[in-house]
Amino acid sequence: MPQRLLPNILFRDQLETPIGTMLLVTDKQERLRALDWHEYEDRMLRLLQRYGKKEKREFELQSGSLPMAIREALEAYFAGNITLIKTIPVYTSGTAFQQAVWQALRHIPAGTTLSYGALAKKLGRPKAVRAVGTANGANPVGIVIPCHRVIGMDGALAGYGGGLERKRWLLAHENTGTGS
Fold first, then answer.
1. Which domains does the chain carry?
2. 76 to each of 17, 153, 158, how far by Cα in Å?
3. 179 pLDDT higher than 80
4. For residues 119 and 104, what is the distance between their CA atoms, to the nearest angstrom?
5. H or E segment to which residue 21 belongs
6. Residue 15: phi, psi to the nearest 5?
């Protein structure tokens, strides 16, 4: 009989931001595992379950304090120092393609945008525009893996799990440092 693995203990905290209450999930290694908005908690939990199955391990969510380095980086981001989010350690367990998309997202400079098609080309998969969009939408740690920097081919704002108003705010914030 295979040995059953103990559940992966994850810690949940929240952070008040200028654009709403952010929910954050970290692990014992003080890595960010999930980030979403309060009104999308169910989606965040579904993503955690999906990725937990991929790891073949259940997770147990406990209340816990956000590691200070992550809290300080996010607070600095919302205060206008948009570069510190690059220092936040993350752990994601998507497919190899998702991982490649998420890694590419972290290389889009703050204050700039890239279309789904351009991102697919950067990945060497120019016909995988829809797959890039799907991977972008499955990103469990928005803002830190900046999926909000991806836009439609025509330059229009397209889908963001936190809502287009938040996406608009985040892009303006990164462009001017004010988020107005």
1. 8-87 (3.30.160), 96-176 (1.10.10.10)
2. 11, 31, 27
3. no
4. 8
5. strand 20-27
6. -140, 130
Residues tagged active-site: 147
Q: Note the Cα 123 to chain centre separation in Å.
A: 19
Q: Six-digit token pair at 129?
A: 């525009």
Whole-number Å distance between alpha carbons of 92 and 131: 18
Residue 180: per-residue pLDDT: 44
CB 8 within 8 A of CB 55: yes
How many residues are there in the chain? Answer: 180
pLDDT tens by residue, 106-159:
999 988 899 999 999 999 999 999 999 999 888 999 999 999 999 887 777 777
List, for residues 27-50, the tens digit of each pLDDT value.
Answer: 999 999 999 999 989 888 888 887
